[in-house]
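Most newcomers find our protein records easier to grasp once they have seen one. Each record describes a single protein and holds just a pair of labelled lines. A learned vocabulary of local backbone shapes supplies the integers on the structure line. Nothing more is needed to start thinking about how sequence determines fold. The record below serves as our worked example for the rest of this section.
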Amino acid sequence: GPRFKALVTSFANNPLAKNVSAKVGTVTLQGKDKAKVTYNVSLGGSPLPRQTGTAVRQNGTWKVGYLGLCKLVALSGTTPAVCKKP
């Protein structure tokens, strides 16, 4: 949502983001609008440890849950302030 707009914009504008890719491994539904997701992230072709997170469905569209987004961004070495309070 709006709370994470600056974080997503900052990540997307980071030149290193162009070298990041992610591939979903498994999805386990936890109700009709929430899912647990495992995924693999690669940075410049080098795989990082398997990650877990959540996805939520809003208005018919699946989106990365905020904890998963924060974990992804934290892989860069810092945890953004917006991620320190749910």
